[in-house]
Amino acid sequence: MSPSVPLQEMIRAIRSARTQCEERGVIQRECAAIRAQFRQSDNGGRSHNLAKLLYVHMLGYPAHFGQMECVRMIASPRYSEKRVGYLGAMMLLDEKQDASLLITNSIKNDLSHSNQYVQSLALCTLACMGSAEMCRDLAPEIDRLLQSSNSYIKKKAALCAVHIVRKVQDLGELFVPAARSLLSEKNHGVLHGAVVLITQLCERNPETLKRFRKTVPDLVQIMKGLIISGYSPEHDVSGISDPFLQVRILRLLRILGRNSESASDAMNDLLAQVATNTDSTKTVGNAVLYETVLTVLDIKSESGLRVLAVNILGRFLLNSDRNIRYIAMTSLQKIVGTDHNAVQRHRGTIVDCLKDQDASVKRRALELSLALVSASNIRSMIKELLLFLSSCPPELKAQATSGIFIAAERYAPSKRWHIDTILHVLTTAGGDVRDETVPNLIHLITNASELHCYTVHKLYRALLTDISQQSLVQVACWCIGEYGDLLLKGECQETEPVQVSEDDVLDALETVLQSHMSSSATRGFALTATMKLSTRITDNVDRIRSIVSIYGSCIDVELQQRAVEYNALFKKYDHMRAAVLERMPLIEKNNSGNTNGEATRETLTETNSSKVAQEERVPPPPQQPAKQTYDLLDLLGGASEPLQQSPAAQTLPIITSSSAGGDLLDLLGGLEPTPAPVTPAPSATVYEKDGVTLTLSCEQQSDSSLAVTLTATNASQSDISGFTLQAAVPKSVQLNMNAPSRDSLPAQGAAQLTQLVMLNNPNKVNLKMRIRISYTRQGSAFQDMVQVDSLPGLGAAGHT
What we know:
By secondary structure, the protein is of the alpha+beta class.
C-alpha cells in the first residue's frame, strides 16, 4: 500500500484484511509511512495523514506519536488544518498529557479569532479536555464570550463554562451574572446552555442557589411559552415543542424549589398545566411528564398536585413499554412512605406487574407490593404474594419469603392465619427462607397454646407429603416431638379427624432420619423428636430405644453425641427421662419488637439453642439435686470426686465449662446458670458522608483474637447497590472477612448491612484498620476510604 493513499483506500484495505495479523500488518505499514511524513517540515498532506492516524486510533491501535502534530496543526492559520488538529487533540490528548499544556496559548488566541467557526473549535476542545490549569487561565475569555452578540458562540461558551465549573468549582462565581442574563435570550440553544450552566452552579454552591431562586418566574415564563407556542418545525419533536429544553427547565425548577415554600408556590400552577396538557401517547411526552412528576414530588407542592403526580405514575404502569413501567415503580417506591394512600389506589395495577416477563420489572413490583401491605389489606395482598411465590424466579424467592414473613408478623389478623401463612411459604419455598425462620416459627407455635393440636396435625400431613423442604421438616419434627400426644389422640376440632398410630409417627420420623435429602440439623430435630416421644407413647419405647442406639456410631459427630446422651438417659438415668423430656415452656424473646429477619444476636443465640438441641428447661425433682448433678457429669467422664461447694454456693445454680456437659445440663432448667447482664460491645461511627454511615464495634474473643462488626446504613433519599467493604490491617495481623448480610442499602435507613471481620493479633501490635467503601448510587459509582487508627474499646475512633 502506497504511503500517499487516501483515507478511504486505507479503510478499504483494513476492512478487506482476512485475519487480525494481516490487519496489524496493514496498520503498521501505514503508521510507518505517517511517521516518515510527520518528520518532513514541508509536508503538504498533514491533515490527510492525521485523519488517517485518528482512524487507526479509533480501531484501538497506538497513535500517541501524533500528539505533537496535533499541536502544530492547531497553530496553523488554515481552518482545514485547525479543524483536524483540534479533533486530534480531543481524541489523543487529555489533561494528564503534558502536550495538552502546549495548546493553551493557541486556544486563547483562537477564542479571540474573528471567525466564529474557529472560536467554536477552541470552545469545543476546551470543553472536552480542558484541565484545571487551562480552565483557570481561560475562564475570563469564556466569560467574555458569554456576553457576545453571536448566539452560536454564546451557546458553545455556555457549555464550555459548564465544564469549567465542574473542574474548578471556585470559578462558578465568575459566570453567575452572565448566566442570569442568558435567560433573556430567544435562541433555544442559548437557553438550553444557560439552564445547564445554572443547574451546575446551583448544585455546587448553596449561596448561588439562593440567588437563582429569584429567576423562578423567568423560568416559569419560558416554560409556559414552550407549552402554548404553536407548531415550530425547528423545535417540534412528535408534537412537543423542544422537549429537551423543557426537561432541563423542569430539572432546574426541581433544584430551585426544593426546601423553599415561595419558589414552590411560584411553580405549582405551571407544573399542573404541564401535567394536564402534555400528550402521554408518545415517548417524548412521557419524558416531560416523568420530569414533571419528579419535580412535583421533590418540592413543597400542594397535596392535590402530588396526587396528580402519583396518578401519572399510575398511568405509566399501564404503558406497554417496560422501561416506562420500571421507572414508574421506582418512583412510587420512593414516595410510598410519604404518600401511602395515593399509591394504594394503584395497588391492583402494581400487583399485575408481578406477572410481567421482565425480571427487573418483577423485582420492582415485588418491592413495591411488599411496601403496600397494611393491616387493612393484609389478607388480599399476602394471597397475591403467595400466588407469586409459587411461580417466581429462584433469584426472587428469598426476597419474597422474607418480605411475607415480616408483613405477616407485623399485621397478622390472628395467630392461626399467621401460622398458616408461614407454613404455606415453607411448603412452597422452604429452601429459600432465612435461618432464623425456624426458631421464630417455633416461638410462635409455642405461644399459641390453643392451636397446638391444629398445628401438629397440619405439620404431620405436610411431613408425609414432602420431606424435601428442610425448614418445614425441622418445624414438623419439633412439633411432633413436643405435641405428639395430641397427634395420637386425633381429637382436633379444627381439622378433619385423622387416626394416627404410634407406628405411623415413628415411621415418618425414621423416614426423615434415613432420607438422603435430610441435612445434619434436620436429622438432629428428628432424633430429638423421636426421643421425646418415648415419654408420650407407651407401646413402642423399645423401638425408640433401638432407633436412638443405631445413631450412637453415626459418622456425624453432632448426631452421634445426641444419640450417646439419649442412650445414657435410657440406661443409667431412666428415672430422670420424663423430667428431662418434658414439654417446652413458653419462650420469651429478648426483644419483643424483633421480627423475622430482624432478630438480635442474643435472640438468635437463644432460639438456635432450641433448634440444635431442643432440650427442655424444667425444674429438677426436689429430691437429691446435688447427687443428680454429679450423676449427669459422670455421664461425660467428669470429675470422679464430688465438687467442693461452700454453703453459699449450694443455693446457686451449678456452672460447668464442659461443652458436652453443657448440652445435658441445658436439659435441666434448675441447673441452668443465671445469665449475666449483656454488656454491649463498644462501638464508634468511623465514616459518615453523603448519607452513608459506617459503625464499627469490637468484641474481644481471646487475648489475641478480636471480632469486629461493621454496620452500614443509608440515610439518603436514593437506594444504594453494589455496596462492598474491603479492609486492610498490619502485616502481622491475620484478617478474615465473612460475607456481608446484603449487597444493597435501601434509602432512608430502611435496612442495614452488617459484616463480621475476625482479627488474630498474636504479636500484640497496635491494631489499625483501613476500610475501602465502594457502592453505586443512581448509576454512578462512588469509592472512599477511611483510616481507623485505633479500634473502639481499645482506643479512640478512626479518622477519615
